[in-house]
Recover the amino acids of this structure.
């Protein structure tokens, strides 16, 4: 089945139109690291930096180690690897090449670089396959042409990290290694601070104005966006410069770190910039012709050995054969990497093949070496590792088997392919077989997507113990056990974990244990972890996932009472001020039974309905554990959807009435209401309009049918949703890609391109008309998941695929 997977399905997306917004990930299921070609470096706006691959692009900038779950969340711990022939070009786009991707498969990527070919058409090729914590690359160069004297045939392998002020690289030609770290992130990492080395506790209380009186302050444009303090020091006295840094910063939290950052021509401007929790010398400019390029020379205790490191992604790269030369280039810019560092290894022109092995760790450089030795030993060839990856995908995808109809099996097979137009199509078995073959490709491509997230960030130490770096711990410590990341629960709770429990129970159990470790380390269950809490999206839908795990009771070693304590905290504990944890506006919700439109919370209707669904889920868990008082109270809260349902509300002069509306504290509905206004008229609905939320009671379809006045009325309303015009009005949410996709790909007001409607087709059964729902379910399956469309909108970490 792994060879049915279309890795490119869903990658043909733009910032204004999504057919998946996914990347062509190469690696292993649920791996810590994934790998993908970076094919552009343009950035139309800040968010555009996350759209770094498109199948129509014609330039390759490198193969990226990536953890990006969604372009809207962006990447972390990312860096680039590539190879080239010729002179060392220091800036982009000179380092890019046109390319031909020979194949994309879940377990292997093969690419040819057109800028590095000989006159006979022999080109530099890269083959990559991934492991859980690393990758191996086989790089093949064109034969050495001793007569091509004008062609610099130096072979080179390089690795690039993105920020000269926070990242580090060291190279060693004799060992054939590139090592270092990147701190690249877009949030979700610890930001704690400790005084700089030598600073006393009193320094923390130093007067900020006194510190700033000798500084010129300039805003930095980089990953962290911290202030940059500039002041003059003696560039021949780095120890003295460090003392000046300490004096100027006065252990000010806004001035946590510094780096000597000199141009090749000299100069005496040093940067003190926010990145690490103390002042230290990262880069020492020397007078030996390599000014500003030595990145690994730390001085007198100001280096990492005295540093609380917090978030680092360490890498350890080794080559076979060893290199003949090594070097580092600083301040490399390609738009996506504003001020990068590039470490390279060079090989003689006679070298025809280089094998690159790389492994990484979020814990330490030594753990990266441990992973390399375990997963990519020197005696294991590229072909052997690739075969292991292929076998792993086969194991995961083979949990579902598909039997195709035979072409000569007799009777015709009737398949309703045109339900939207009401046309019933009868096909021959041969046609049905072709149809089923195409669906098989879509099925396994979707299973591949559903087997990537949530990823495991757990590592195995030298003693064989499972451990993990915690992005929730303010000190960035290491803890035992599993940890998961990159799952937006607002999306994923609907399908990802249910599918996992059915077909991958062992992995499902690991992820549930991982979320419980996150709860132990930050005191709350995370809602959008990447790698730690990002605080995106409304409500606490992780409660549904953990409640389901309690009810299923199929996770070995899960402390059910502790798990219940975690979800009950979301239900009963008011969110701390300014926190990204818990439920926003819970105090109002408890007071009124809903979030009031004139209250302090946002997305009041959508969040209220989500709170109620979570309460219903938690009530089932409470009942399972014999907590009857909690179960009763939560079930009552879950029934408060009736307070927001207006049986008389309509979309105008036509249609079945009945919509969820914003309600004020005094118990009256807001006077103005537009069923087509996305976001509502005042930010009451999340990523949709009232029309998409009109059946948002998946836990009580029979009750909703009763509220509509009977199942027949609700069936009519559901059918109306499928067939009415795909109208949208620019409400408080404005124009986003979701409206465009609803019109472009979907049908009626059924916005399958986004999550709020993903339960609706099953509501037909609750209303008493399952055949109608089956018709539209088949139509969505046939028309919204295929090679032509890809996905009808953002795939969202396996949710759409599941």
């Amino acid at each position: 089945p792994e060879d049915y997977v279309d890795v490119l399905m869903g990658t043909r997306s733009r910032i204004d139109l999504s057919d998946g917004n996914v990347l062509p990930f190469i690696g292993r299921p649920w791996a810590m690291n994934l790998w993908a070609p970076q094919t552009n470096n343009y950035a139309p706006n800040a968010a555009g930096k996350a759209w770094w691959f498109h199948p129509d692009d014609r330039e390759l900038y490198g193969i990226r180690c990536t953890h990006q779950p969604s372009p809207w969340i962006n990447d972390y711990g990312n860096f680039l690897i590539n190879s080239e022939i010729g002179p060392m070009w220091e800036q982009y786009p000179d380092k890019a090449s046109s390319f031909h991707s020979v194949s994309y498969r879940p377990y292997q990527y093969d690419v040819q670089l057109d800028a590095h070919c000989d006159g006979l058409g022999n080109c530099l090729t890269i083959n990559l396959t991934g492991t859980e914590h690393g990758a191996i690359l086989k790089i093949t160069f064109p034969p050495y042409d001793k007569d091509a004297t004008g062609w610099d045939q130096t072979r080179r392998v390089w690795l690039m990290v993105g920020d000269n002020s926070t990242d580090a690289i060291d190279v060693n030609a004799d060992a054939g290694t590139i090592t270092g770290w990147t701190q690249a992130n877009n949030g979700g990492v610890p930001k704690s601070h400790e005084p700089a080395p030598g600073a006393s506790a009193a320094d923390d209380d130093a007067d900020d104005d006194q510190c700033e009186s000798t500084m010129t302050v300039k805003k930095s444009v980089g990953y962290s966006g911290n202030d940059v303090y500039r002041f003059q020091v003696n560039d021949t006295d780095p120890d003295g410069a460090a003392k000046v840094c300490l004096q100027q910063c006065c252990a000010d939290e806004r001035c946590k770190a510094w780096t000597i950052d000199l141009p090749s021509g000299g100069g005496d401007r040093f940067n003190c910039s926010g990145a690490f929790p103390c002042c230290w010398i990262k880069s020492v400019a020397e007078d030996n012709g390599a000014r500003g390029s030595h990145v690994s020379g730390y001085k007198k205790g100001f280096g990492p050995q005295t540093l609380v490191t917090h978030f680092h992604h360490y890498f350890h790269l080794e080559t076979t054969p060893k290199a003949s030369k090594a070097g580092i280039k600083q301040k490399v810019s390609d738009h996506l990497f504003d001020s990068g560092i590039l470490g390279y290894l060079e090989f003689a022109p006679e070298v025809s093949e280089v094998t690159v092995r790389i492994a990484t760790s979020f814990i330490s450089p030594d753990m990266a070496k441990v992973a390399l030795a375990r997963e990519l030993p020197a005696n294991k060839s590229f072909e052997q590792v690739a075969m292991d990856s292929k076998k792993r995908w086969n194991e995961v995808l083979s949990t579902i088997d598909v039997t195709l109809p035979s072409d000569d099996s007799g009777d015709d097979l009737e398949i309703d392919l045109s339900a939207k137009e009401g046309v019933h199509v009868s096909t021959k078995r041969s046609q049905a077989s072709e149809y089923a073959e195409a669906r098989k490709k879509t099925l396994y491509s979707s299973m591949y997507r559903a087997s990537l997230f949530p990823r495991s960030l757990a590592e195995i130490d030298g003693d064989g113990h499972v451990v993990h770096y915690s992005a929730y711990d303010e000190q960035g410590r290491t803890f035992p056990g599993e940890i998961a990341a990159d799952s937006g629960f607002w999306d994923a709770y609907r399908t990802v974990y249910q599918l996992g429990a059915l077909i991958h129970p062992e992995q499902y159990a690991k992820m549930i244990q991982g979320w419980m470790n996150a709860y132990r380390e930050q005191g709350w269950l995370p809602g959008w972890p990447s790698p730690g809490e990002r605080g995106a999206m409304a409500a606490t839908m992780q409660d549904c996932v953990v409640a389901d795990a309690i009810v299923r009771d199929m996770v070995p070693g899960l402390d059910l009472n502790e798990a219940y304590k975690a979800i009950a905290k979301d239900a009963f504990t008011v969110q701390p001020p300014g926190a990204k944890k818990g439920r926003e506006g819970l105090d109002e919700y408890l007071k009124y039974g809903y979030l009031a439109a004139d209250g302090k919370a946002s997305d009041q209707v959508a969040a209220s309905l989500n709170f109620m669904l979570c309460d219903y889920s938690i009530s089932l868990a409470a009942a399972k554990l014999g907590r009857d008082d909690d179960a009763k109270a939560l079930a009552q809260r879950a029934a408060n959807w009736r307070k927001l349902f207006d049986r008389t509300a309509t979309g105008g002069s036509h249609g079945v009435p009945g919509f969820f509306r914003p309600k004020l504290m005094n118990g009256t509905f807001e006077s103005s209401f537009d069923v087509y206004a996305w976001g509502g008229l005042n930010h009451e609905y999340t990523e949709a309009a009232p029309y998409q939320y009109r059946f948002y009671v998946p836990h009580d379809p029979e009750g909703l049918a009763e509220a509509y006045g009977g199942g027949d009325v609700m069936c009519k309303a559901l059918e109306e949703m499928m067939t009415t015009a795909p109208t949208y009005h620019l409400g408080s949410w404005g124009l986003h890609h979701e409206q465009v996709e609803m019109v472009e790909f979907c049908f009626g007001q059924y916005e399958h391109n986004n999550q709020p409607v993903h339960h609706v087709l099953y509501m037909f059964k609750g209303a008493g008309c399952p055949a109608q729902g089956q018709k539209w379910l088949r139509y969505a399956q046939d028309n919204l998941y295929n090679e032509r469309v890809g996905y009808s909108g953002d795939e969202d970490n396996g949710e759409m695929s599941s």
About this structure: The first strand starts at residue 34 and ends at 38.
